[in-house]
Design a protein that fits this description.
The chain is mainly alpha-helical. The chain has one domain. 52% of the residues lie in helices and 3% in strands. The chain has three helices and two strands. Strand 1 and strand 2 (34-35) form a beta hairpin. The longest helix is centred in the C-terminal third of the chain and has 33 residues, at 82-114.
Amino acid sequence: MADDYYPPLSPMQTGLAGKCPRCGRGDLFQGFLGLKPQCPSCGLDYTIADAGDGPAVFVIFITGFVSVAFAFILRFGLEVPAGLVILLAIGLTVILTALLLRPMKAVLFAMQYRNKAAEGRLDQ
């Protein structure tokens, strides 16, 4: 049936857009970080994959690198007072985390769907 065929979509495109990894139309999120139970457009069950802590780990590495580099440049390159550097670095960390966590979760979910990732099982 032509209605059941969904061409493969880019996990990066669907993830960054926050759309369903199968059809690319339905919204993925309910609220800020919660996934909907299923796609409102194609009916894909979103409980098939769970990104777990993966998005948070990637965001921690990215945000940590950027924030520390920013703090070093401010403190040692521009000689900004230490107290102000701490406040600015914390603010940057919070903003980057809020901006990156949702798209990272969506991209990892889309990659799990595309690669048919599942829990490991031992064949008997």
